[in-house]
Model the fold of this input.
Amino acid sequence: MEKQTYLVVGLGNPGAQYARTRHNAGFETLEALSGRWGVQINRKRFNGLIAETTYDGHRVVLCQPQTFMNASGECVQELLQWYKCPLENMIVIYDDIDLALSRLRVRKSGSAGTHNGMRSILGCIGNQQGFPRIRVGVGAKPEGWDLADWVLSSYRIREEREAMENAFKRAADCVEDWIKNGIEHAMQQYNGK
Done:
């Protein structure tokens, strides 16, 4: 089997004030993965923090863009240019308010929907939609809440936090499945779970 390079990008906002908020589901999934693999995402490159490691015989780059969500594409564009890997070898993990709390949705490609980080990525790489993504449900905004306030809020009760910790682990499992078995298999295993 030929060794390939895979890029795993988790979206979020840098800074302690944003840690463990709904918008940082991508960052937290990468933390679950890096903890499992025994690597630290701490090298500053491409407007992001990265870690390079090996999984299932392939080189894997974990990346947390440090540009703030709305400019995530700047980091992703540099990452793709440097590693020169095909788009289908990049997976992006991000929060989704249209999915129930802790639910995963895995796709082979698609649009940005209402997500500003994904809009930025598609804008910077020329609107090519052909790369996999894992959306992690953070629950719909309650009535009366501003959308920005909702996605930048923390989980309100312990049960929510526990459900999300579980979701990050499952999303990390999904990344491993994708690298080993491809996106179609990962979609079958993890969609709707």
